[in-house]
Amino acid sequence: MASLLSILKNVINLNRVHVEKSEIVTVPERHFGEIYEEKRIYIWLRPIRRYQSRCPICGKKYHGYDYRSEEESWWRASNLNGIPVYLFYRRQRIECAEHGVHAEWIPWADGESRFTESFNNEVAWMALQMSKLAVSILMGINWRTVGNCIKAAHNRIEPDVSVRLHGLRRICVDETSYRKGHTYITVVYDMERNQVVWVHPDHGKEVFEAFCQLLSKEEQAAIEIVAGDGAKWIDNCTKEYFPNATRFGMVYLVLKLLFWNSFTAGYAPMMISVFFLGGLLLSFLGFLGEYVMAINIRVMNRPLVVEEERINFSLE
């Protein structure tokens, strides 16, 4: 039968550590101008002996140099039934023969982040489903900390983003605005793998050329479809860098209509779709109005009128 301590270690995903003690504390917290009491789980732990005093770069084991601080460092772990979990350990520094003095490697930390891998993974996943403000309220962290957790998870999962540029065949290009429409970014989307492969501030031919120049001659020749709006800079770069590609404009709109939640579209395709669907709606309203008027004429049942004489009307 598993002990409560082993269950706690498995739930929080604490491997290669010794738990020294743990306790539940109540601390005052301020949210939206109000102070309330919040329960927290504090866990004091240390790495097992074979994983202590290791260089964070090469992973080799060295003797301790000194302690990083007189106080214990803390890390935030995944919530346990909605209760925040904090990990405490007095971290020491080691002197690596190759990389110099560094703080020792921590097995439960996500790199140099103050959060564990599972916590950063949760925040990164939730940021895809909801706003950063909602994530910060739910996880009890600062709004800017959400971005740091996403960056830490991204650097661990995909340290080299250039791998997304390999094997491209069908891409979509579009510029989109943020910060109330005053700042633009250019987005290149892989239609086959359903993922964004490249993002760059600003828009225009110079920006798209920067993406095209990242591809080799073989990768440029492998591009079959370049979809996007009717911007001339997309047409010019397609002719110059992608000799075997076919340029599509309406494909972008059709894909957005078919995959509304997963496909990214900019201002121009959105406006085209709004006016197109609005025109269809007005046409159907016109047909419906004619039908209602015909029914109204029949229901009114007006009497038959016969002209007996016309005065001051020409014979024509």
User: How much of the polypeptide forms β-strand, as a percent range?
Assistant: 25-35%
How would you state the average pLDDT, rounded?
83
Helix segment tally: 9
Helix content: 25-40%
> What is the terminal-to-terminal distance?
108 Å
Q: Quick one: CATH class of the largest domain?
A: Alpha Beta
CATH architecture of the largest domain: 2-Layer Sandwich
Task: Name the poorly predicted regions.
Answer: none
Principal-axis shape: elongated
The number of strands is 12
Task: Kindly give the count of domains.
Answer: 3
Radius of gyration: 32 Å
CATH fold category name of the largest domain: Nucleotidyltransferase, domain 5
- Describe the strand arrangement of the main beta sheet, using strand numbers: 10-9-8-11-12
Largest sheet: 5 strands, mixed
Structural class: alpha/beta
Strand/helix succession: HEEEEEEEHHHEEEHHEHEHH
Question: What's a concise summary of this model?
Answer:
By secondary structure, this protein is of the alpha/beta class. It has helices at about 5-10, 115-130, 130-140, 145-155, 205-215, 215-220, 230-240, 250-260, 265-300; strands at about 15-30, 35-45, 65, 75-80, 85-90, 90-95, 100-105, 170-180, 185-190, 195-200, 225-230, 245-250. It has 3 domains: about 5-110, no CATH class; about 120-160, no CATH class; about 160-270, Nucleotidyltransferase, domain 5, CATH 3.30.420.
Structure description:
- The longest helix is centred in the C-terminal third of the chain and has 34 residues, at 267-300.
- It is built from nine helices and twelve strands.
- The model has no long low-confidence stretch (mean pLDDT 83).
- It is α/β, with parallel strands linked by helices and 316 residues long.
- α2 packs across α4 and α8 packs across α9.
- The protein has three domains: 4-109, no CATH class; 120-159, no CATH class; 161-270, Nucleotidyltransferase, domain 5, CATH 3.30.420.
- The chain has helices spanning 4-12, 117-129, 132-139, 143-157, 205-214, 217-222, 232-241, 250-258, 267-300; strands spanning 17-31, 34-47, 64-67, 73-80, 83-89, 92-96, 100-103, 170-178, 183-190, 195-201, 225-228, 246-248.
